[in-house]
Structures are given as C-alpha cells and as structure tokens.
Amino acid sequence: MEPWTIILPAAGSGLRFGGDVPKQYRHLRGISLISYSVRTALSMPEVGHVIIAINPEHRAMCEHALSSQHLQSDRVLIVEGGTERQQSIHAALQHAVISDSSLVFVHDAVRPFATFDLYRRVGLAAMEHGAAIPGLAVRDTIKSVFDGGIVEATLPRSVLRAVQTPQCFRAGVLRSAYAHAAELGITATDDASLVEAIGIPVLCVEGDERNIKVTTPLDLLIAEAFLAV
Amino acid sequence: MEPWTIILPAAGSGLRFGGDVPKQYRHLRGISLISYSVRTALSMPEVGHVIIAINPEHRAMCEHALSSQHLQSDRVLIVEGGTERQQSIHAALQHAVISDSSLVFVHDAVRPFATFDLYRRVGLAAMEHGAAIPGLAVRDTIKSVFDGGIVEATLPRSVLRAVQTPQCFRAGVLRSAYAHAAELGITATDDASLVEAIGIPVLCVEGDERNIKVTTPLDLLIAEAFLAV
Fold it and tell me: Which residue in A220, B47, B69, B196 has its CB near the most CB atoms, within 10 A?
C-alpha cells in the first residue's frame, strides 16, 4: 500500500474566537488544536507525510506548536497556504510527491478528535471508490429559508448528512477536481463538492459524533468536557 | 395580551439513552430535564398554562419530577399524550382553553436551556406573523445521499437553518395545521412543517446555540459543561 498523505489547511485567521490567536493555535488543555491533528496523523503507520498549509506570518507559532509537543518530524511539511481554505489545499497538493492512486486525506486542523478508526473507515472506502467522506445523520429539522427568513421548505431529514473531515480521495481524483475548480472558479465548503463537480461519485460513510469542529468558545467548552471523561 | 400556552410533548420512551428512564426524566445536576423546561415556562409572567403530554404510565415519575422542584401549580396541566410526538401535541391542543388569536408554544421537554429571551423573540415574531420558529445557521456542510450512501448533492449552506424549539403559533393556525395533518395523515419532525403544509408562512428567527436537545449521553455531558460556566 502506498503511504497516505494528510493535508491540514491551517492558514486561516480564525477571528470567530476573538483575540489575535488563530483558532487552530488555540489551546485545549494546554495543547494547541493543530497539534492534536498532527499527533494523530503521525501516530498512524500508514501516513507518509502530513502537509500543513499555513499563513507564513504564523510560521513561528506553528513550529512552536509542533516542537512543544515533540511533533517535529521529517514526515511533517509546512507549506505556504492561501487566503482561502481551498487555495491552501491546492497549494499543499502541489507539494505532495505522490502517485495518482495514493490516498490523500484533507482534515480540518480544528477537529482534534478524529480517531484512527475514522481515518481507516474513510480511507478504506476511498481506496475502493476513489472518494469518501464521513457524515452523520442530521438530528435537527433542517429548513431552507428565503431572504428575510420566511421558510421556503423543510428538507427530508432521512437523506441528509452533516459532513465532517477527514475526507479522503485518490490523489488523481483530488488533483483533477482542484484543477477543474480553479479553471471554472468554483468554490465550495468542502473538498468532496469539488469532486462531485467533476462527476465522480463520493461515498459517505459513518462519521463520529465526537469529531467536532472547534471554532467558537462554546465548542472549546464542549471539547474540554469530552477530554474530561 | 392573552396569556401564552406552552405545550411540552413528553410521552416518548426515549430509549436512545439506554436504561429504562425516558430521556425527559433523566437527571442533569440532580434535576430531571423536563423540570428545567417547566421551571422556565412558569417563570414567565406571560405564561397562562403549561400543558405536559405524557405517557400515563409515567404519571408518578412526572409528578415527582415537578414536586421535587416545587413546580406543582394550577398553571401546569398533565394530560395523556400519544405514542408519537405529533399525537401528543394534538392531544394537548384539545385541552387548551384558548382563543384562536392567543399564542401557543411547542417546546421539546429535553431542551433545558431555552431562555426567556428566546421565547420572547419567537413569541413576538409569531404575534406578528402567525407562526415563528428559532433556527441556527448550519455550520457543517450538508449533503443529501442516495440509498447506499453515495452523495446526491451538496446543499447551499447559506440558506439552511437547523431548527429548534420553542416554536410558536397563533392557536388558530396550529389547530388548523393539526386538523389538516390528521385528515391527510401527514407526519413531520416539527410543528412548523404542518403549518407550512397549509400554506401559512413561517418566520425563522435567530435561535440560541446553547439551546441543545439532550437525547444522548454525549449531549448530557455537553449540557453539564454548559452548567459549569
């Protein structure tokens, strides 16, 4: 099996938290959020490289986050990202020295609780299908609204999935999707959308309810509660 | 202003928690979940009656939950609900002695953190529009999937709302919606859907991110974390 590549887009300024520390460097139990993701990635023998796409202004912060957790490794590559998440992933892909058939995972740097099991579940599905993502059944009723807030429709909940990361793709698939998106100026909230746009089926496998995205102080409180048990 | 009526459907067996205590009677800091909702409702001077629709087998459990928190009141009415949430609300509506123009709120018994502010925001909007619900912008990417899990589409996130309770309606609107649903055998995951089905516009106002639905042990952990700060 070819080694896996993990891309962590981490160039955002993450202002939603307030303060001047980008959210991927905020601490959870004294450890920066990004370090959780890097540690998990490095712990998996399947992983060849972790490519972190950062804002160059944050290089010292990123290096400190890694070194303080003994996560400096020649398996970790820090590259310059873009102003948007999608640009960062595109930049990281340029640095990946891999064949089209090897697996690339894209993971939010601020999801500290992705497990080996989750990576493997998504990775196995992507090996078979070319593209796989984790998703959870949606618990809330989801509606679409018009401008002004009047409800347009109530969506059929049973077919909806709240999508997480890591999302996994054969490198050739992801590269084609990014090239196509760049050419047509397509932007999306996740990578699978860009793959869907080139007509390649994406398989949604079971996500993990603990695999939360930590983007607000309330999320940090929840993450701390998870660590306490 | 006519007094408000709050309906709490609480007849479910709530097996998702495991154990044999229905989820609305599970304890959070030693207080049953339903008691939080009743306490908030009784604290609002606008509220005339709180109607709790229960499984008759749980009557002693419900009465104990209330009495242990000194929430017995002639403003609280315990009525027999049905096997489905929708039947319970329909049953509760039969017991409400109110005019068509007065406001009825339907609230999940297992959302302990609904605030006065939220009730008032939704209530004011319903007074003006006839029907109003709280909703939050959706943070995850939401996709629809086919049977088997292949992604069908990625939904346009900016127009989506994750809907909460309390949902509020003019009594006449809600009664018409329930009569229509009963006649046509329509079932839905929320009350607003039944109102939408009779062609009455529903306004979605800003929800509250702390107003979570506590249906799993993980939710209970999160709820405890919220109480700790």
Answer: B196
- Which of B113, B143, B208 would you mutate first to test chain A, the one with the most A CBs within 10 A? B143
We report the CATH number of the domain holding residue A180 as 3.90.550.10
User: Tokens at residue B36, please?
Assistant: 């939080």
* Nearest to A84, CA basis, from A182, A162, A179: A182
CB B51 within 8 A of CB B8: yes
Q: Residue B64's closest CA among B38, B25, B29, B28?
A: B25
Instruction: List chain B residues with CB under 8 Å of A209.
Output: 216, 218
- How do residues A19-60 score in pLDDT, each as one tens digit? 678 999 999 999 999 999 999 999 999 999 999 999 999 999
Q: Which domain holds residue B135?
A: 4-228
Q: Is B56 exposed, middle or buried (0-12, 13-18, 19+ CB in 10 A)?
A: exposed
| Domain count across chain A | 1
The Cα–Cα gap between B66 and B77 comes to 11
Cβ separation B215–A139 shorter than 8 A: yes
